[in-house]
Amino acid sequence: MFIWLDKLIRLLVEKVLNISMESRLGSSVHFFFYDTIKIIILLGIMIFIISYIRSYFPPERTKKILEKFTGVKGNIMASILGIVTPFCSCSSVPLFIGFVEAGIPLGVTFSFLITSPIVNEAAFAVLLASFGWKIAAFYVITGVFVGVVGGIIIGKLNMEKQVEEYVYEMQMGEVQIEKLTTKDRVDFSIQNVKDIIKRVWVFLLIGIGIGAFIHGWAPAEVLSKYAGGNNPFAVLVAVVIGIPLYSNALGTIPIAEALINKGVGIGTAMAFMMAVTALSFPEMILLRKVIKPKLIAAFVLITGIAIIIVGYIFNIMAYILI
To answer: Exposure of 2 by Cβ count < 10 A (0-12 exposed, 13-18 middle, 19+ buried)?
Structure first.
């Protein structure tokens, strides 16, 4: 799909910049420019498509849909809606309050909150650009799996008392769902493309820059030995390291791509990325405003274990996915 871009960047590196593609510097420069252009192209396309779909699912409608589902069906629907519903640190608290106030079970609410940061249109676009459709599709499926399983277990623990009391006392009120025309949806999608790219381009360039350095200079044999698919502890270590960090999928995927190219197990890289996006320390601080430490600890433990399991599944299926 991007053979033309690969050839163009090779010409840029060798003919314009006069750097050999066989050198470490040439390899790094090619990785940086090629991945940046490729990711931005796919990012714009995917954000537009998913934003158009997202225009049908504002938070008010999402809440109304989730009110109709109970049990495991509710967890599954919450995770699926988490894919196409906007989620960021600024919206997590009001969404959580709105769901709880509407009587949506706590486990269903957590299925939504777990899946939303892990799986979104931006992550899918970058994964598609970096790894191809197999890994991108499997990542979405496993991301939903983590959300469903995590939500089900949290629901079974009956930890409603671990939600701050004021949350149950709040009355959000009914909000009229705005009716949009096709033009409104297109305008919304275009604006969303601009807003998201403007918000994430720094993370993207930093991630690609780190990935380019790893691609050109990191010792492949060392990474393969200690973080390859054959190391039984690599996934566990990757998740433990990823939890305290703060980034989004766009900043971590290029790093994961470079690590995989150097021999790091695909499951190790994917687990690291999921841990960074779903269990970041700043998100825990924000959620502390509405839930108590015991529930936060359960959330981190359950989601972390689910991500570790997904990492090992990725490693086992690597020969099919790559």
So the answer is: middle
